[in-house]
Amino acid sequence: MATKNAEAHAAVSKKYEWGFATDIEQDFAPKGLSEDTVRYISAKKGEPEWMLDWRLKAFRLWQTLEAPDWAKLNVPPIDYQDAYYYAEPKAKATIASLDELDPEIRRTYEKLGIPIEEQKLLANVAPDAEAGATPPRRVAVDAVFDSVSVATTFREELKRAGVIFLSISEAVREYPELVRKWLGKVVPQRDNYFATLNSAVFSDGTFVYVPEGVRCPMELSTYFRINAENTGQFERTLIVADKGAYVSYLEGCTAPMRDENQLHAAVVELVALDDAEIKYSTVQNWYPGDENGVGGIYNFVTKRALCQGRNSKVSWTQVETGSAITWKYPSCVLAGDESVGEFYSVAVTNNRQQADTGTKMIHLGKNTRSTIVSKGISAGRSDNTYRGLVRVAPTAEGVRNFTQCDSLLLGDQCGAHTVPYIEVRNPSAQIEHEATTSKISEDQLFYAMSRGLDQEAAVRLIVNGFAREVLQQLPMEFAVEAQKLLGISLEGSVG
Amino acid sequence: MSVLELPSTREEGWRWSDPEGIAAAAAMPAGAPVDPAALFLDLPGARIVVRDGVVDRDASDLHRVTLAPVPASDHPLGRQAAGPGWMLHLAEDAVAHPVQVVHLASGGANHLPAEIVLAEDAAAQVVETYAGAGWSNRFLRVRLGRAARLMRAVRLVQDGGFVSLREEAHLGTGASLVTTFLGAGAAGSRIDATLVAGEGAFAEFGGALLTAGEQRQECAVAVRHAEPNGQSHQLWRAVAADRSTASLAARVEVARHAQKTDGEQSLRGLLLQRTATVNLKPELEIFADDVKCAHGATVGELDQRALFYMQSRGIPRGRAQAILTRAFVADALDRIGNETVREAFAADADAWLERVL
Prior knowledge:
Chain A is an alpha/beta fold. Chain A has helices at residues 2-12, 35-44, 49-63, 103-112, 155-161, 168-174, 176-182, 193-201, 442-450, 455-466, 468-471, 476-489; strands at residues 26-28, 87-89, 139-145, 148-152, 164-167, 204-210, 219-225, 235-241, 246-254, 261-264, 267-272, 277-284, 296-307, 313-320, 325-328, 331-334, 340-349, 354-357, 360-363, 369-378, 383-392, 400-409, 415-424, 430-439. Chain B is mainly beta. Chain B has one domain. In chain B, 54% of the residues are buried.
């Protein structure tokens, strides 16, 4: 039993705090992947005919594709038939109020420290702040447990503002027109192997629509948790910000410790219309496997934003500390004139983790601008790659891009790689790229230690300083979590 | 047809390559022979004339250069240039006069390998010129012993067709290799090189690719630091006009124990028209923790303020553009140590600017 192993792991190493599994009854789809699986998922979710057809089309396409192998990753072959594609907590998924939520799941989320209850505001804010007073910072949460969204909070308040914040399966039922209009528009079904797979079997995820001129009154957040054994999680997130809208969205992930590798192949699509702004922050902390590289999540994610409107803006911030293998490139297609794309990333790899991550900025519109700041930190025997593309189309006048990628190496058994592609087809573009690779200098370390810090604390401090430009971009509560995560991920990497 | 053996552009390292350009060059009809006399520089030493991939013994003055079969390479371009070629082998402490090689192509495909082996403390200079039209494919193997020094300057001034160069160099302890390329002709090109640097070795590999019309030139260079204390500089400049494409892909690899490596890359592209394309890929692959590796890459047009300033001082716009472009290219050509060679290369670059601007 893997649970036993998990306990053993937990006993020898305290490093991955979120490595517990929750014992709840679950409904599984039959193991393996076939058209029947796709039909099963679709039927389970009570989806309309068009949705099923869409999934089947993707599935048939997926069968004709070959798994890509161009990244600087060592991915053992994945047996797609040896996994469950759908796992649902037996407790009824749609519930009237949070009190009806399976107490086991609720305990899980409590252990994870997710502010799932509406009253749980930031510690320094009175829990019953008067409505009408300066609105305290609050976070609406959509929690996804294995394949199913189990709870979405603050729904009423969001509804008053006109913001639609639903799990994607609910959205398919309640707002079919909107979903149909945008689903697969940014990441088409045939985009890549894992996106196609996701299109066929996506189980749940989040749908956000912010109507014209609305500034979303609170941060929206989704928390993903893979619990069941041998399951893959295939969530799909679709965020549409209509003209002049603003939304900030946070995403967090954890999984129990298991010996097997589990696949997480999500698709995230963002659409920003005229003057809209989307801020998308991720703290990714999937189980990274143990020191010897056994187990862990394969995190193969397709994230892309379409800045369709004039003056639109999309900002990606990511802190990647987890996963055995990470393979993702949050991208911006800057189609609208004057649109802005930003990408801030910290990727930490330790032990035998591998990360191949970066961004693509596709400049199509006039005077579009993009900023890329990527910080890679490698320790142990890990490999950390920044791979990015900045492309300027012939029509894109006056493009500006600034790219900075810095790598920090802790130890002499790890690797740091930088693979930036720059393709420019318009002379008015100004593209700048800088990169450095370094280690923590003895002087810095000596100084910090002479002030009374032990070596690990000193390294943590220096690493946090190195990643500061990115951490600053995170919403406050995430920034705190991210700093702690950086420390934990690097534990045992020095000395 | 040998072109079909080349990897497709779907492969990472060949993404910006131009197999159609090579195929077209290989199919070019035979043209008029070119007179090599004007292409030799006023330098003492060996003068080798290569006509369509064959060394013309009667027209050449070999000096220390010998003709013999060169061991083959397994690279897709390199392995096509197998068989007899020219060789320069220098014994310990030997210093040779510059070796000049002029490659003349008159249509069709031609291949030729070469080998340069320098023993401890030997020093050599090699200047190569490519002229004519057709597909010229070359393979060069370089072996440098302890503290050996090789300076190479290569200019591509073919009127049409394609020049593909595959180079594999191995630098011994403290050896130094400085190679400068100038692509100022009308032919397409691919400069494909792998350098392996030993302990404390110094490698400088760079140049300027000037493209116009429908031309496509690219470099795909990897410098691998296998031992500690190595130093490498890759300085490339690309100027693209009309509908041409210039691609620069340069990689620094640092092996696990190659501590104290200092790798530097500077890739800069200048676009003269909006229809032109510049692709850059400054790549780092680092496995050692105590290294200094930095790369800078920029693409853009001429600085409008600098242009305005020069015009305000009475320099016509066209002339100002030429001066600024010339300065941009000069960075790369200034690395050539031999004054005669440097001036000849600068003159070729100027001629190109004159023609295009």
